[in-house]
Write a structure and sequence with these properties.
heterotrimer, A alpha+beta, B mainly alpha, C mainly alpha, B: 13 helices, 2 strands, about 80% helix, disordered C terminus, C: mainly alpha, about 0% strand
């Protein structure tokens, strides 16, 4: 009786396991599907410009049919993306799914790779240029040239259209005027003893783009160049030794608490915080240091396997229209088409004058200089700051 | 314990007082931060905003769902195995102990590095096979099975330890033998004899797993699922006080739940005496 | 319990009475393995596969443009040099120190709780420990910034900055780590302390032993296995901690978990997944070594307790 019982249990277990596996496999079984073609015969995910859709109307129709757009790593208060998303959504009636707003550029690339073929894969990406270059090399992006393509400077786009700069800003010094008597204006100011225990970066330079930019800017202010980031590392090492620099990551929470009254960050972020902080008892001022001007642009890209290819391309057209660029301008970011827009008057004058003041034109390191600087930083930062 | 000298009692009192201060101070400081807004004085706004905060209920719901699924899975896996080991001691016991302690050796960040590679494998190499959809289903946003499986692995050591001490306390072979002699089937032995005696270990294991899932941030963050801890950090960027208030509340509620459970446990045991 | 088992058992509808009632009381060897099979398969698949992926990632490199994968020792050698080696050593140092402190302080606290006569205190502390052992990351970091940071409540109250205190140092991070390590130790050691019967204390006192002698000769040896097991657990937890350190001292204190996260999910490093996997492998090796040293010690000292 008992041997029979254990045989029965054994068989029961086997049957259960088998049916469970079959059920699981059947419930989620199947290979990938292919994308449908547009009116002009070119599939939406292979379209490289407006012409492939038969003009703007064709694109809007195709996008509306898809009905949705997946974006990633777009915080609402970053370059006014909250309003950009809302404006796009309302104008075309397309639902925008904003995934992982705090994500980094690496997260975006990971999402493209991991979610490939899923409905929630990101359609469009906004990421650092180095990541855009690397992603293009890996074949992750679809080439697409927006209507305003020719107006984007050649040095700020990929020749094949796989990525193109969107907006940028300068490294700036944000400061709480309520907790700091005289706000620092330059990198040299930061060394003053009155700022002891007050200066913070908004992240770890080995991880956060704005933080490494601050080190790069400090290097420019202290005799370094695009080829040499070491003076910047030394500057922060000295600041850390004197106690002016605190390693805690500055966040809105730490600023409101008063722990990080001086924060080095992108100017569009610092300027955007001013309004947000005013209600919380913080008087936030922004200054772009004249001795260390470092500007950086981010890049747009379209996912080669975008689940909503027409909506993705419509999004790009929207961003590079006067309306989209002005919305970024409203977020205190400098859109890539700004010089042209100022000349032909499509830039909103009040927004332009609200930008943090800076003299001169920005110059950028080449990708090779950037890569070398990053490698130097990762190798030397921790040791230098450990003292 | 009349043997406790006055000096020992004073020492214990001092230890308890210091510990109380150490553990309470950060919580109190956080609480003060949530209610004291410079320029507005004291306000309970951070707490009243919680229920309406976008993503709060979704994040909390997802984490609770994951916790329940993890608890069910981990207990279903571990309980039969450990009972079998107690009834038939031998090499199997060592194997199970080693396997259940191994996850401790692997930090979550290392574990998620491996998981990430595997999940990327699906779309890259397997897009033409039926397994493709399984890979996608495992990452469904509304119920990421990938997270349940990861959390089960993470919970194994703690559940094992909890059940191990519980099983040692009751005499499993004798109980089983007696029940089998009365003619009970294996299933009845498990459900009607052993499990009721393991109630407090099971409850302890379940609550440790709950606390683990509600506090696990790294894996969910790198796999980009918006669970409760991930939501707390995300919202701390825009609403610092709300985020801190939510953390404090979740700590408090979990603690009260655990308290209720453990006092219910002791009350039942008292009734059974 | 009755020592005689009657051979005539009352008729039960489910099963026919059998002469050898004992034979069915123990499961056959095959059934025992069957009961454990789900667990064994689960761990092999869902734990083994990611580990294999880490191993593969650590020893191979994939060319980005062509997609070809080749074996290489480059990742592993890089992961134990330069900045990465610094990070590994400071992680190990920090974990050893905080684990040792956690064991001592946790045991003291648990002893105070177990010995206390306050009703319900034990319940309160054990449940609170269960909750706090999992409290970490950004909320914990912020709680300590609010308390002991430069503008923290305690710092300003007690003028700690003038006294030379800074939260953003390895010492400060250790203080924060203890917040979840001590509760973890309390959870581990409280059941063992229960096993330390008060009669033994009284018997020792009757033989003329002082409190210190009691602990040295009886208490600590009995607690030995749990202390060692607790140390291993605390080391593993401190070694694996990531989010808390990232929020507080990420820029100045190199820790290996931070570097893995930087490589996997940052805005600066590209294509470093191989080094990340190598670092992950290093972490597993270190933690495995600690376990391999302490667990046999623990089993040996537990043997005489059985």
């Amino acid at each position: 009786m008992y041997p029979a019982l254990s045989r029965r249990t054994g068989r029961l277990a086997a049957v259960l396991a088998l049916s469970l596996t079959t059920a699981l496999a059947a419930a989620a079984c199947g290979a990938k599907e292919e994308a449908p073609a547009t009116a002009s015969g070119v599939a939406a995910d292979k379209a490289t410009s407006l012409a492939d859709f038969g003009g703007m109307d064709g694109l809007i129709a195709a996008a509306k049919k898809e009905g949705q757009l997946n974006v990633i790593a777009l915080p609402p208060d970053w370059a006014n993306y909250g309003e950009v998303i809302e404006a796009f959504s309302k104008k075309y009636g397309i639902k925008v799914n904003s995934d992982n707003p705090d994500g980094s550029s690496a997260d975006e690339i990971t999402a493209v790779k991991t979610l490939k073929g899923q409905d929630r894969a990101p359609d469009v990406l906004d990421l650092g240029v180095a990541f855009a270059i690397s992603g293009a090399q890996e074949g992750l992006f679809a080439p697409y040239k927006v209507a305003a393509w020719d107006k984007i400077p050649a040095s700020q786009k990929d020749a094949e259209g796989r990525w193109f700069n969107d907006y940028g800003g300068y490294v700036s010094i944000g400061c709480d005027a309520k907790r700091v008597a005289v706000c620092p204006q330059t990198f040299a100011d930061l060394k003053k003893p009155e700022y002891k225990g007050k200066v913070a970066l908004n992240g770890n330079p080995t991880k956060a783009g704005a933080a490494i930019a601050a080190v790069y800017a400090a290097s420019l202010a202290n005799g370094g160049s695009f080829d040499n980031i070491q003076p910047g590392i030394d500057f922060f090492a000295a600041l850390n030794k004197s106690g002016n620099f605190i390693p805690v990551e500055s966040t809105p929470a730490t600023v409101e608490k008063g722990e990080t009254p001086i924060s080095l960050d992108w100017d569009y972020l610092n300027a955007g915080y001013a309004k947000q902080f005013a209600a919380k008892g913080v008087d936030w001022k922004v200054a772009i240091p004249a001795d260390g001007k470092y500007a950086n642009f981010y890049a747009q890209a379209v996912n080669l396997d975008a689940p909503h290819p027409a909506a993705a391309r419509l999004w790009q057209e929207f961003l590079y229209s006067a309306e989209g660029q002005n919305l970024w301008l409203k977020g205190f970011a400098r859109p890539v088409l700004l010089p042209g827009m100022i000349t032909d008057g499509t830039a909103q004058a009040d927004l332009v004058s609200a930008l943090p003041k800076v003299e001169g034109e920005p110059s950028f390191p080449t990708p090779e200089q950037n890569d070398k600087a990053k490698a130097d930083l990762v190798a030397n930062w921790a040791k230098a700051l450990a003292g | 314990m009349a043997a406790l000298t006055r000096r020992a009692r004073a020492w214990h009192g001092a230890v308890l007082a210091l510990a109380g201060l150490y553990f309470a101070a950060p919580l109190i400081a956080s609480f003060v931060f949530t209610v004291d807004v410079p320029g507005q004085g004291l306000t309970g706004q951070a707490y009243t905003q919680i229920l309406g905060a976008p993503g709060f209920l979704d994040g909390l719901g997802l984490s609770l769902l994951l916790a329940v699924a993890t608890i069910v899975l981990v207990l279903a896996l571990v309980v039969p195995a450990m009972v079998a080991v107690r009834l038939r001691p031998g090499r199997l016991g060592t194997v199970i102990e080693v396997l259940c302690t191994l996850p401790l050796v692997v930090p979550p960040i290392a574990f998620v590095a491996g998981i990430g590679s595997i999940l990327q494998l699906g779309p890259e190499r397997l897009s033409r096979t039926p397994l493709y959809q399984t890979f996608l289903a495992v990452q469904d946003e509304r119920f990421p099975l990938a997270l349940v499986l990861s959390y089960t692995v993470l919970a194994l050591p703690f559940v094992f330890r909890s059940l191990d001490s519980g099983l040692r306390a009751i005499d499993v072979p004798t109980l089983t033998e007696a029940a089998r002699n009365c003619g009970a089937s294996w299933w009845q032995v498990l459900v009607r004899v052993l499990l009721p005696n393991l109630r407090s270990s099971l409850a302890g294991a379940a609550f440790l797993t709950l606390a683990l899932v509600l506090g696990e941030y790294t894996i969910a963050r790198i796999l980009t699922f918006e669970t409760f801890p991930v939501w707390i950090v995300k919202v701390s960027g825009s609403e610092a006080r709300l985020s801190v208030a939510v953390s404090l509340l979740s700590l408090l509620i979990t603690w009260l739940l655990l308290l209720a459970l453990s006092s219910a446990g002791t009350r039942t045991t008292k009734n059974e005496d | 319990m009755p020592t005689a088992v009657t051979t005539v058992s009352p008729p039960v509808p489910d099963a026919a009475p059998t002469a050898s009632g004992r034979a069915g009381a123990r499961p056959r060897r095959g059934s025992a393995t069957l009961a454990a099979l789900p667990l064994l398969t689960f761990v092999t698949v869902f734990f083994g596969l990611p580990m294999i992926a880490v191993l593969v990632g650590a020893v191979t490199v994939t060319d980005r443009a062509t997609g070809t994968t080749t074996l290489t020792a480059d990742n592993l050698t890089r992961s134990v040099q330069g900045a990465y080696l610094d990070a590994l050593t400071s992680s190990i140092k920090l974990s050893l120190v905080t684990a040792a402190l956690g064991v001592v302080l946790g045991t003291l606290l648990a002893q105070a709780v177990v010995a206390s006569r306050l009703p319900g205190l034990r319940n309160l502390v054990v449940t609170a420990s269960g909750v706090l052992a999992n409290f970490g990351g950004v909320p914990l970091a912020f709680a300590f910034i609010a308390t002991l940071g430069i503008s923290g409540v305690m710092t300003e109250l007690l003028h700690l900055t003038e006294a030379g205190w800074s939260l953003y140092t390895p010492a400060g991070l250790a203080v924060v780590y203890l917040y979840f390590l001590i509760p973890l130790m309390v959870l581990v050691i409280a059941p063992a302390l229960d096993g330390l019967r008060p009669q033994w204390r009284e018997a020792a006192a009757n033989c003329g032993a002082t409190g210190w002698q009691f602990w040295r000769l009886i208490g600590l040896p009995v607690l030995g296995p749990s202390l060692l097991g607790g140390f291993v657990l605390l080391f593993g937890t401190a070694f694996a901690a990531y989010a808390t350190a990232a929020a507080m001292v990420g820029s100045v204190l190199p820790l290996v978990t931070l570097q893995i996260a930087d490589a996997l999910s940052g805005n600066v490093l590209i294509g470093q997944e191989g080094v990340a996997s190598a670092l992950a492998l290093d972490m597993v090796v270190v933690a495995g070594l600690v376990m391999a040293i302490y667990l046999p010690l623990q089993r040996r000292s537990a043997r005489w307790l059985r």
